[in-house]
Design brief:
Keywords: Metal-binding, Methyltransferase, Transferase, Zinc. InterPro entries: BHMT-like (IPR017226), HCY_dom (IPR003726), HCY_dom_sf (IPR036589), Hcy_S-methyltransferase (IPR051486). Zn(2+) binds at residues 217, 280-281. By secondary structure, the protein is an alpha/beta fold. The chain is built from 13 helices and twelve strands. The protein has an eight-stranded parallel sheet with strand order 1-12-9-8-5-4-3-2. It has a two-stranded antiparallel ribbon with strand order 6-7. The protein has a two-stranded antiparallel sheet with strand order 10-11. 54% of the residues are buried.
Length: 296
Amino acid sequence: MPPLAEALRHGPLVLDGGLSNELEAQGCDLSDALWSARLLADDPRQIAMAHRAYVRAGARVLITASYQATFEGFAHRGVSRRGAAELLRSSVGLARDAASGAVGPVWVAASVGPYGAMLADGSEYRGRYGLTVAELERFHRPRVEALADAAPDVFALETVPDTDEAEALLRAVDGCGVPVWLSYSIAGERTRAGQPVAEAFALAAGNDQVIAVGVNCCDPRDADRAVRIAAETTGKPVVVYPNSGEVWDADARDWRGDPTFGAGRAMAWRDAGARLIGGCCRVGPDRIAALAATLP
């Protein structure tokens, strides 16, 4: 199987969709501070089933269940540091096993979510936690090292809310021997913390370890412009995997509105420079299957 960076030179690849919504569709209760990462310890079969659903749908890149998996989060559940490292590595193994049943190559992206995901209070959608870049780097590096031990094909530095955390993550992965993509969560043409996306993307422009840059966990309409800005700013392949476009109503605790994610929109992203295209929250195997059937 060729390295992912080489494969991107031959055309776009389809990412998977939201892991959490597929786990919920399977009947899993994710009302826990660890979110989907809890299942790494409690029921890894469910994670494997979700990965296989996306493989059957045509996904060529699987993102691991490690987004909210941290040493600190597992420690709150009484898991030792050694045990937490094993669980982090197992997230890569579960995706790799699911990929092995595919017809054709499937790459595994080890998810590294933002510091705020560990806090489980929504702060990953605000950023600016009051920590320095050096402090954020010290937080991220141990789990980067644990995940790197499992030899993923790429790191997904994803749902990054601001440039401080992006800088910290890029420092944390430096020297780990694994290529990365850098993906921001945005609102309009700004990061969640308010920086212009062009400024945010520019952090990766001269970094050869970064094989793609873009956005995820955002409105598909915001992704339209962001894909072009990412391509123009960095000259790198673009990664894009937004949410369905529905809006979470916190009072009603339900999703409102109609999805705006679709294969037609994804074609426009491809034409603008996107080479890794998939979905995030509320994008399930059915939409990934439609995407796989549309993209060449």
